[in-house]
């Protein structure tokens, strides 16, 4: 028996020994090694219309992409990695070959190796059918991802492959197993069924453009060495999105700027994550009301209940949903043409004198056509995270018993994305935010629209949950300058029923109700003994202000931002949020949010002896 057990033990050890060797000998594919070596030189390219990909091919700051990626763009930006986005200049544009070469400041890429180009003389020598290749780019909402496949066919100016290419991949490199760029990923020949095939402009088409760009370098200065804002990598708190849709009444007028003031021949709307999600969900929530009533009547189990918030998942941030940003929509207004209006007035007048009925015919057009738009905060121009300039068609025909209505036109509109913190209050005041808009037919004259304070306040209120989330991620608890190692910060959605609270929800606390921690009781505090409630402020109390929407901002010492209690396990738990129908903004040194904070407290009635 002992011998049998011994043999089993030997076999088990042998199995784990072999398994360890197998895992230790795990092979990394050739494609993975190539991707690791070249990915730093592949960038995301942003134009006015959308985004694509590109790659560094010369250390002097030369970047290649497709011409259609940056077509009709006044502003071109290159994002090198998650944190670095920089301005770029268009150096060479070859519309026929769909090739563009950009110039960036070489200081930004001094530590990045340019991709190596294949120097074959013609397309027939550059690739062969069945050859393995990889594509690198930033499709849809992703950045720097790899797809692989084989060359299916080699044409005179294009390489056809089964590599997966999607919108956003355009301009990225097609690379062979020698780590050489053999093509510029350009188009997808999509099929109704199946994945389709991809096309890449053969790199030999760029040789003349490369030489032209190099010749131009001596006479062109690179863009300035500066950083531009990037899209946040986190998402707006999902629980706050759900809460925004469940509120019976919610402010909506603040987002429609055109409804509050004159905006010329343009319609201006502002969007924040909670507002946009609420608008998106309203129809669905209205549709399911009767279903929910039946569920309630029948005491339906949770598994049987319809969940309207099934789309609120953490992974959605990787698909580009619920980003913590502010969006502006600027569209030209639509109206009756002047000629059509005059003709109908004249026709109606004549018919009136004749005593007959008049059947009108009205033609509609865009009253403006967007050329450019910029956002200024306190007279300083702000760079948008993303800039989407699109052509909007106007094409319709309808009629009733009084008139027919037709519209045939096209104009440009814009969708701009900004960081939320540019709307924060500075030096005790809301910032002055301006949109400066020009129409293509009146490019020498700007329309200046001052954003209403009501809109700015609403933006800041909407981002309060996001600012809270940032605070929880970075806060460091200190008691008289000492950081207790055991203390952790946790949220609790419902107030504890076991704890007595000194203040009701919505009630503010005066300065006299707070006392600083007594240094003599520091040890007791660190052990969590005798303290029932903890209240604290973000920032220096001199920088805390309170205001109701639409009212003048006033300094206040009475703003209770959060209330926490300390339980026996020395954990801080969220009790409730104060300031119903009001908001608080936080400002630290140099205008930074949540720069520092001061902890205040109140002792329970049972521990009055601990008071100073």
Number of strands: 31
> Percent of residues in helical segments?
10-25%
Largest sheet: 6 strands, antiparallel, barrel
> How far apart lie the N and C ends?
75 Å
Residue windows where pLDDT falls under 50 for at least 5 positions? 474-612
Gyration radius over CA: 31 Å
Walk across the major sheet and give the strand order: 1-2-3-6-5-4
What amount of the residues lies in strands? Answer: 25-35%
The mean pLDDT is 75
Net shape: globular
Total count of helical runs of at least 4 residues: 12
Which structural class matches the secondary elements? alpha+beta
What does this molecule look like?
The chain is of the alpha+beta class and about 600 residues long. Mean pLDDT is about 75; it is low at about 475-610. It is globular, with a radius of gyration of 31 Å. The protein is built from twelve helices and 31 strands. Helix content is about 20%, strand content about 30%. Strands 1-2-3-6-5-4 form a six-stranded antiparallel barrel. Strands 8-9-10-13-12-11 form a six-stranded antiparallel beta barrel. Strands 14, 15, 16, 17, 20 and 21 form a six-stranded mixed sheet that branches. About 30% of the residues are buried.
């Amino acid at each position: 028996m002992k011998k049998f057990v011994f043999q089993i033990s030997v076999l088990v050890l042998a199995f784990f020994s072999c398994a360890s060797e197998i895992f230790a000998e795990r092979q990394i594919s050739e494609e993975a090694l190539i991707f690791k070596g070249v990915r730093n030189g592949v960038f995301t390219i942003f134009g006015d219309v959308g985004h694509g990909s590109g790659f560094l091919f010369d250390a002097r700051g030369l970047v290649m992409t497709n011409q259609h990626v940056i077509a009709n763009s006044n502003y071109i930006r290159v994002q090198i990695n998650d944190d670095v986005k920089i301005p770029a200049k268009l150096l060479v544009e070859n519309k026929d070959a769909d090739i563009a070469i950009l110039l960036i400041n070489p200081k930004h890429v001094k530590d990045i190796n340019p991709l190596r180009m294949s120097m074959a003389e013609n397309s027939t020598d550059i690739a062969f059918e069945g050859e393995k290749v990889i594509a690198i780019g930033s499709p849809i909402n992703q950045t720097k991802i790899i797809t692989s496949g084989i060359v299916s066919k080699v044409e005179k100016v294009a390489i056809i492959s089964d590599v997966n290419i999607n919108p956003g991949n355009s301009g990225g490199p097609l690379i062979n197993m020698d780590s050489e760029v053999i093509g510029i990923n350009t188009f997808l020949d999509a099929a109704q069924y199946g994945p389709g095939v991809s096309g890449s402009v053969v790199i030999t088409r760029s040789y003349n453009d490369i030489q032209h760009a190099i010749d131009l370098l001596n006479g062109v200065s690179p863009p300035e060495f500066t950083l531009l804002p990037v899209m946040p990598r986190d998402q707006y708190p999902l629980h706050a999105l759900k809460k925004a849709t469940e509120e019976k009444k919610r402010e909506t007028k603040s987002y429609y700027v055109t409804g509050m003031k004159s905006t010329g021949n343009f319609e201006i709307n502002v969007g924040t994550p909670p507002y946009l999600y609420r608008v998106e969900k309203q129809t669905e929530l209205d549709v399911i009301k009767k279903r929910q009533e039946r569920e309630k009547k029948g005491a339906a189990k949770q598994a049987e209940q319809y969940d309207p918030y099934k789309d609120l998942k953490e992974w959605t941030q990787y698909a580009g949903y619920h980003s913590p940003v502010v969006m502006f929509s600027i569209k030209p207004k639509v109206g009756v043409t002047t000629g059509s209006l005059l003709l109908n007035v004249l026709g109606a007048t004549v018919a009136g004198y004749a005593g007959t009925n008049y059947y009108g015919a009205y033609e509609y057009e865009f009253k403006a056509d967007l050329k450019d738009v910029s956002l200024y905060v306190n007279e300083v121009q702000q760079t948008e995270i993303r800039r989407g300039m699109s052509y909007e068609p106007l094409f319709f025909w309808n009629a009733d018993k009084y008139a027919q209505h037709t519209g045939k036109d096209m104009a440009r509109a814009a969708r701009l994305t900004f960081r939320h913190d540019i709307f924060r209050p500075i030096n005790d005041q809301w910032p002055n935010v301006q949109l400066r808009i020009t129409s293509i037919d009146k490019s020498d004259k700007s329309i200046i629209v001052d954003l209403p304070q009501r809109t700015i306040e609403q933006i800041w209120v909407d981002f309060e949950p996001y600012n809270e989330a940032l605070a929880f991620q970075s806060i460091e608890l200190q008691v008289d300058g000492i950081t207790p190692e055991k203390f952790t910060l946790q949220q609790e959605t419902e107030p504890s029923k076991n704890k007595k609270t000194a203040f009701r929800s919505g009630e503010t606390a005066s300065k006299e109700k707070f006392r600083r921690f007594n240094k003599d009781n520091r040890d007791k505090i660190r052990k969590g003994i005798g303290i029932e409630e903890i209240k604290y402020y973000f920032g220096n109390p001199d920088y805390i202000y309170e205001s109701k929407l639409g009212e003048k901002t006033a300094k206040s010492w009475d703003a209770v931002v959060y209330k926490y209690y300390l339980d026996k396990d020395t954990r801080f738990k969220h009790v409730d949020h104060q300031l119903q129908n009001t908001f608080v903004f936080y400002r630290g040194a140099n205008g930074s949010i949540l720069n520092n904070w001061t902890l205040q407290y109140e002792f329970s009635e049972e521990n009055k002896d601990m008071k100073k």
